[in-house]
Design brief:
The longest helix is centred in the C-terminal third of the chain and has 15 residues. Strand 1 and strand 2 form a beta hairpin. It is built from two helices and six strands. The chain has one domain: predicted glycosyltransferase like domains (Thrombin, subunit H, Beta Barrel), CATH 2.40.10.220. It has 118 residues and is α+β, with helices and mostly antiparallel strands. The chain has a six-stranded antiparallel beta barrel.
Length: 118
């Protein structure tokens, strides 16, 4: 059995996402998300390589709110991609923190996770 390396709580979350690498884009679906990364369904015809840099755009609330994240591919299997966040703009950061806060239901736990980021 592999050792769990995650230190951030993952939130099961169903949302549409667009994965972009270079000038190519693929539609995908969010499986779960945390303050440091995201797990998505692997898009069809996407040749993922661990270490590749991508952009992920997640649509929230009827496409009125978006989280836009630069990320590295850190996990690849037949059906899923694990992405580690490398950059979030301020607005996306606020939306992600709020999403995690609402789903954790524990402000102290959220503060501990935020402290780990910095």
């Amino acid at each position: 059995m592999t050792e769990e390396k995650r230190s951030f709580h993952r939130i099961s979350f169903d949302a549409n996402a667009t994965l972009t690498e270079h000038d190519n884009s693929w539609d995908s679906q969010v499986i779960d998300i945390c303050l440091k990364g995201i797990l998505i369904k692997r898009p069809e015809h996407f040749d993922a390589v661990i270490g590749d840099k991508v952009n992920i755009n997640i649509c929230l609330i009827k496409n009125d709110i978006e989280i836009n994240m630069d990320a590295n591919i850190v996990h690849v299997d037949e059906d899923h991609l694990g992405l580690e966040s490398t950059y979030l703009d301020t607005e996306s950061s606020v939306h992600l923190v709020r999403l995690v806060e609402l789903n954790l239901g524990d402000s102290e736990l959220l503060q501990r996770e935020l402290a780990e980021l910095f």
